[in-house]
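Page 47, continued from p. 46.
Same chain as before, 155 aa.
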Amino acid sequence: MGNLIWHEYARYVALSATVYTIWASFWGFYFRKYFFDFVNGIIRSPGGVQPAASDSIFVSIIVKAPVVQILSMLLGFGYLMLDYPAPFLKNTAIHRSFPIRIVLLLLQSFFAILFYQGTNGALYSFIAACCYIRAQMLGEVMPEAKDNKGRGGKA
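Result:
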């Protein structure tokens, strides 16, 4: 048996989570729902749960105008460009950086948890960020960084 390479596992989970979040953002355009409306919500007999007045800022940026869904989708496409990688990002320091990936995944998780369709993608993004943190703590580096080590101008 071998050792688990955490950053490879995190990459696969992050790609799945990002594609899921992008797809959930598309669905979030058509079926807009603030996920945490049940916390302070009022139960209506024919209508279900109505969000409280204190949640009006979230209702306005998720339900009335899909700002959170758009930000989540743009962040997902940006992360796909970084992780898949886009040709102009390949073999750059940004592509090899674990902290940038961790921050982007945590931001994606934050935006995706706010709307109903993005909750699973948010959970998977958080798991991928934790796996990247574990890889960072174990001192793992990406194979591209190993190949460029000691070569002037390419690292």
